Amino acid sequence: MDDARLNREEFERQLKNWSRNLEAWLLEKVRHLEGTPERLREAMLYSLEAGGKRIRPVLCMLFASINGMDIAKVMPFAAGIEMIHTYSLIHDDLPAMDDDDLRRGKPSSHVAFDEATAILAGDGLLTDAFWFMSQTEASPALVLEAVARFAKAAGSPGMVGGQMLDMIFTGKKNVTFAEIAHMQALKTGAILEASCVCGAILAGADEAGTRAAAEYGGAFGRAFQIIDDILDITGDPAVMGKPAGSDETEGKNTCPSAIGVAKSRELALSEIDRALKAISGLTAPETPMLRNLALYICERAK
Ligand code: GRG
User: Fold this and answer.
1) Which end of the chain is more exposed for a tag (fewer CB within 10 A), N or C?
2) What span, in angstroms and rounded, lies between the C-alpha atoms of 51 and 69?
């Protein structure tokens, strides 16, 4: 894997550039939404401005760019992806769900505002996301295909369904590793994979290009969630911006709870290998960034 490395500073500089572009576009749009009540805008912006790694929109932008699309044209779609991710975090933190008071190093939305406002901020972000996505500058047929693909990944057969399974499994004994893997593929993997695939679709990629995006995104998603589970056990709360150890306290079924931390890490590394193989045939200038992003998520501390 080592010959695929950008030096760390160069990687971080490039990642910051990609995410800064996205943030500038997204925050400007939400700040100037017409007709949105001020308190709702404030709550939506509070969570969007709290930071976050912006990995999903950056993946979408990278796959669009690799397949020849101008980044400015894919921005509405990438912004929509981050809005959907942010809504899911707001709702996940609610007392009726994971009941977490801290997110991205700041009080969660329902703590900073109130529960009803946090629910509406999530609803606003989710719904406005599809409005933004529909304004992507690509052929209407491709925009429709990408919007449908992402809606399915975020909806009941994807992230929302995965969250339901997570709740059903919590506190249950004898949940199998296959059941945990399926739940995680829906809860976390689906929108990570769709972020890659939609970038390729919007750029009009051929079948091989879309397949590479799906294989990379699928493996990336599996590794991402395993590392997230490991960080919940071994991570530093001050760096992560949220408490550690909550999975065990809450009786969550996770990869390390089923097979232990060491085997989970091995599994994550093997998924990263799969992700790297999936893009080994790509030659676009953005490909090293994709490689390094996959390596980075395994080494991240938050
Ligand atoms: C409430 C419908 C609904 C779904 C919630 C995303 C999610 C599903 C729950 C959040 C809890 C969790 C640990 C989910 C797994 C996905 C994950 C690791 C999210 C955090 O993503 P990062 O690390 O977050 O990219 P930042 O803050 O960097 O954007």
Assistant:
1) N
2) 26
